[in-house]
UniProtKB/TrEMBL annotation:
InterPro entries: Aminoacid_DH-like_N_sf (IPR046346), NAD(P)-bd_dom_sf (IPR036291), THF_DH/CycHdrlase (IPR000672), THF_DH/CycHdrlase_cat_dom (IPR020630), THF_DH/CycHdrlase_NAD-bd_dom (IPR020631). Residues 5-119 form the Tetrahydrofolate dehydrogenase/cyclohydrolase catalytic domain. Catalyzes the oxidation of 5,10-methylenetetrahydrofolate to 5,10-methenyltetrahydrofolate and then the hydrolysis of 5,10-methenyltetrahydrofolate to 10-formyltetrahydrofolate. One of its GO terms (cellular component) is cytosol. It catalyses: (6R)-5,10-methenyltetrahydrofolate + H2O = (6R)-10-formyltetrahydrofolate + H(+); (6R)-5,10-methylene-5,6,7,8-tetrahydrofolate + NADP(+) = (6R)-5,10-methenyltetrahydrofolate + NADPH. This is Bifunctional protein FolD. Pathway: One-carbon metabolism; tetrahydrofolate interconversion. Keywords: Amino-acid biosynthesis, Histidine biosynthesis, Hydrolase, Methionine biosynthesis, Multifunctional enzyme, NADP, One-carbon metabolism, Oxidoreductase, Purine biosynthesis. Its EC number is 1.5.1.5, 3.5.4.9. GO terms for biological process: L-histidine biosynthetic process; methionine biosynthetic process; purine nucleotide biosynthetic process; tetrahydrofolate interconversion.
Length: 291
C-alpha cells in the first residue's frame, strides 16, 4: 500500500511542539514576532501571506504586515525592510516572492538583517548552510526533510533526485540532503531544465522531490517501484491546485507520496513559524526547546 503523507497532520504536530517555546519566550517578555511584506497584486501571494498571519495568531506569535504599492519605487521596499530590521518587536521578516518587476528581489534579501531572515535566503545564511552550520533552514526544504523524517524515510545512503534548482527550494534542499548529517547523507542529483534525460535520473532514485513549477512533469513511468515522492509543485490549472507530479500514476509505483494540496504547502508554513521562534530565542538570548 502506498502511504499518502499527510502534510497537514505533520504541520499540526510541528505547531503544537512550538507552543511551549512560544509560552516561555512570551512569559519572559519576548513574544515572538513575524513581519510579512507584500509588494504584488498577485491574488495567490496575498492568500499565502494571510494564511501565514492566521498561523501566527493561532500560536500567539505577534504578526506585522506591510503592503508596498506595486508601483512604488524600490526604495520604498528597502525602507520598509530597514524599519523592520530596526523594530525590536520583529524577530522574523518575510518579503513575499515575487515582488514588482522593477525591484531586484536579491537586493531586497541582502538588506534583511540575517538574524531576522526566517526564509533563510540571505547570502550569509545560505553560506552558513552550505558550510554545514545552518542558522535558518529555508522553510520548504526544511519542511520536506521533516516529512521524510516523519514518514521514516532514511536519507543516508539514498539516491535522491531533486528536480528544480531555484534558490528557494531545489538548491537549498539538495544541499541539505547531501550534508553530512543524520537527516542528510544522501547522494543527490540536482536536475533542471537543461537536464538531458530527466526520466533516466528519476528512474534510479529512491527519493524524488519535484520542484520545477511544471504541472505533472513527473509521472509514474519515470519512477521505480518503492520510491518516495515529494511534490513541492503548486500550480493553478483551471482554478485547481496541481502539483509537479502526476499523482495517480506516481501513486501506483511509490511507497509513499505527498498530495497537493495537503503535502508540502502546510509544512512550509509550519517551518516558517519554527524559524520565527528560533529567531526570537536567538535575539533574546532565551534558551528554548525546539523540535
Ligand atoms: N508548497 C510550497 O510550499 C511551495 C511551492 N512552490 C512551488 O514549487 C514549484 C517550484 O517553485 P520555485 O522553485 O520557486 O520555481 P522556479 O521557477 O524558481 O524554479 C524552477 C526550477 O525548475 C526547473 N525546471 C523548469 N522546467 C523544468 C523541466 N521541464 N524539467 C526539469 N526542470 C525544470 C528550472 O530550471 P532552470 O534553472 O534551468 O530554469 C528551475 O531550476 C512551483 O510550482 C511553486 O509554486 C514553491 C515554494 C513553496
Ligand atoms: N519569501 C517567500 N517565502 C516563501 O515561503 C514563499 C514565497 N516567498 N513565495 C511563494 C512561495 C509559495 N509558498 C507556499 C506556502 C504555503 C502553501 C500552502 O500552504 N499550501 C496549502 C494550501 C493552500 C491553499 O489553500 O491554496 C497546501 O498545499 O495544502 C503553498 C505555497 C511559499 N512561498
Amino acid at each position: 500500500m502506498t502511504e499518502v503523507i499527510d502534510g497537514n497532520a505533520v504541520a499540526e504536530d510541528v505547531r503544537e511542539s512550538l507552543r511551549g517555546a512560544i509560552e516561555t519566550l512570551t512569559d519572559a517578555g519576548h513574544q515572538p514576532g513575524l513581519a510579512t511584506v507584500l509588494m504584488s497584486e498577485d491574488r495567490a501571494s496575498a492568500t499565502y501571506v494571510s494564511m501565514k498571519q492566521r498561523d501566527c495568531e493561532e500560536l500567539g506569535i505577534q504578526s506585522f504586515h506591510v503592503e508596498v504599492d506595486v508601483d512604488a519605487p524600490a526604495n520604498e521596499l528597502y525602507d520598509t525592510v530597514s524599519d523592520l530590521n530596526a523594530n525590536d518587536e520583529v524577530d522574523g521578516i518575510l518579503v513575499q516572492h515575487p515582488v514588482a518587476d522593477h525591484v531586484d528581489y536579491e537586493e531586497v534579501v541582502r538588506r534583511i538583517d540575517p538574524g531576522k531572515d526566517v526564509d533563510g535566503f540571505h547570502p550569509e545564511n545560505v553560506g552558513r548552510l552550505v558550510r554545514g552550520d545552518p542558522r535558518f533552514r529555508p522553510c520548504t526544504p526544511h519542511g520536506v526533510q521533516k516529512l521524510l523524517e516523519h514518514t521514516g524515510v532514511e536519507t543516508e545512503g539514498a539516491d535522491a533526485v531533486v528536480v528544480g534548482r531555484s534558490n528557494i527550494v531545489g538548491t537549498p534542499l539538495a544541499n541539505l540532503l547531501a550534508r553530512k548529517a543524520d537527516d542528510g547523507n544522501a547522494t543527490v542529483t540536482l536536475c533542471h531544465s537543461r537536464t538531458e534525460d530527466l526520466a533516466a535520473k528519476t528512474k534510479q532514485a529512491d527519493i524524488v522531490v519535484a520542484a520545477a513549477g511544471v504541472p505533472e512533469l513527473v509521472d509514474g513511468s519515470m519512477l521505480s517501484e518503492g520510491v518516495t515522492v515529494v511534490d513541492v509543485g503548486y500550480n493553478r490549472v483551471d482554478g485547481e491546485a496541481v502539483g509537479d507530479v502526476e499523482y495517480e500514476s506516481a501513486k501506483e509505483v511509490a511507497s509513499a507520496i505527498t498530495p497537493v494540496p495537503g503535502g508540502v504547502g502546510p509544512m512550509t508554513r509550519a517551518m516558517l513559524l519554527y524559524n520565527t521562534v528560533k529567531a526570537a530565542s536567538q535575539r533574546s538570548g532565551i534558551d528554548v526547546d525546539l523540535p
